[in-house]
Amino acid sequence: MDYLRAFVVGGLICVIAQILIDKTKLTPARILVSFVTLGVLLGALNIYDWLIKIGKAGATVPLPGFGYALAKGVMKEVDNVGLVGAFTGGIKGTAGGITAAIIFGYIMALLFNPKTKE
Predict the structure, then answer these.
(1) 64, 37 in Cβ contact below 8 A?
(2) Is the C or the N end of the chain the one with fewer CB within 10 Å?
(3) Any idea where the domains of the chain sit in the sequence?
């Protein structure tokens, strides 16, 4: 059942993004930034916690989940070290995901022959 809920929640996030791409003049970059910002706002308001309870990885893996991780990291660090945590919390909260993306991207570039679009 967890897999199904993760699929539905993650799929709905992707459907919303696809509808925005198809029906608006927003660029994909603006949509992605909007999703991260929405994740930050919903995380700061503790609304995204509810979505994570339902969708688990379906809610944490897409871009709003990254924004949520930024917001939670900042809030935790501000509670621990004060105002300086506003600058360091997001980095600490998302360091694992960013590191994994860099490492796996590098490994894929080594294993396959990356090409630019023509």
Answers:
(1) no
(2) C
(3) 2-111
